[in-house]
Amino acid sequence: MSYRRADVKKINRLITLLLRFDAAPASGINLQHFAANANVNIRTIQRDIKLLNDCLNLSEEKEDKKKTRKKEKNFYIERKGHGNYGFKEGYSLANAKQDKIFHDTIEPLAESLGMSPAVFRAYWRLSPQENPLFIKFPQQAETIRLISGFETLLDAIQKKYTVTITRKNETGKKTAWAGFKPLKICFSEGFWYLIGYFDRKIMKYRLESIANVQPDKKSRYFEYNPDKDPKKAIEYILGNAVGMWFNSDNITQTIKLFIKKPIASYFKKKIYFPQQKIIKETASGLILTCVSSDDIEIKNNIFPMIQKWLPNITILAPHKLAEEFRDRLKQYLEQDVL
After folding, report:
1. What CATH architecture applies to the domain 150-228?
2. pLDDT by residue (tens digit) across 306-338?
3. For the whole prediction, is pTM greater than 0.85?
4. How far is Cα 168 from Cα 268, in angstroms, rounded to an integer?
5. From 3.40.1440, 3.30.2010, 3.30.70, 3.30.1450, which CATH number describes the 253-334 domain?
6. CATH architecture of 5-91
């Protein structure tokens, strides 16, 4: 993607502004002097500040059933007097990052309780002993050591060049995979995964199985244009996946499930299956649909989730899949574990 020279100059100016505000004294920086050094007029800098305030602001427009109401905006860059501007008291790029983390991961929990995010934030800052709320995130059995070449992997994802990864299996045998196109490092269900393309297929590897990463900076790769086909973007794929057993190819089939009343409330509030959608509610439960991209996802994600909720969940269609699931249960019941 190419950028106009004016765009590059604007991006550099905005970054410089943020860094100057972050390092400035309480009195802020003088806009007239900054504008002169940037070779633009002061109105341009004022527009830059408005843009930065809009980007830094974490409030969003919320809709209720009757009307749209807009939360009050916070202005993180404010007038300090005498032509000076700066970050509001107590604000910095470091705590801006913390605000972003809170907004993306913690604030939705407040909304799930029907609680004001501001109140929830106040509770969140209490010590564990004082806090009446306790949130348990997925835990790992042990900490994964930093893999050799981890920073190389991050650099390759950002700059889009291929790498050779060396993986080890459970027996310790190592295998090298050249020409791997890394896309994301993803945390899911308590584990870290490396996701990328190899041999035109999307692959997912547990991070602790990777022994080494070697860059090939001469071999760059170019993806689809996400503006033309946003559903092919890895962010979209991960956002719609449930667990790591997914495929980026076209959906192969739709599955219809019946959820009995004792567990129906869980499925109204949480997505357990890929692209889960409630299509009918009856006195005895819910009928919902989900999708699968391939047999691997069915056997490693959908079937185990159905087993987890037995006997309160039933496969209605396709009939062949229901029979396959019954055969799987029969084999389990008949197996000799000794």
Report:
1. Roll (2.30)
2. 999 999 999 999 999 999 999 999 988 888 766
3. no
4. 41
5. 3.30.70
6. Orthogonal Bundle (1.10)
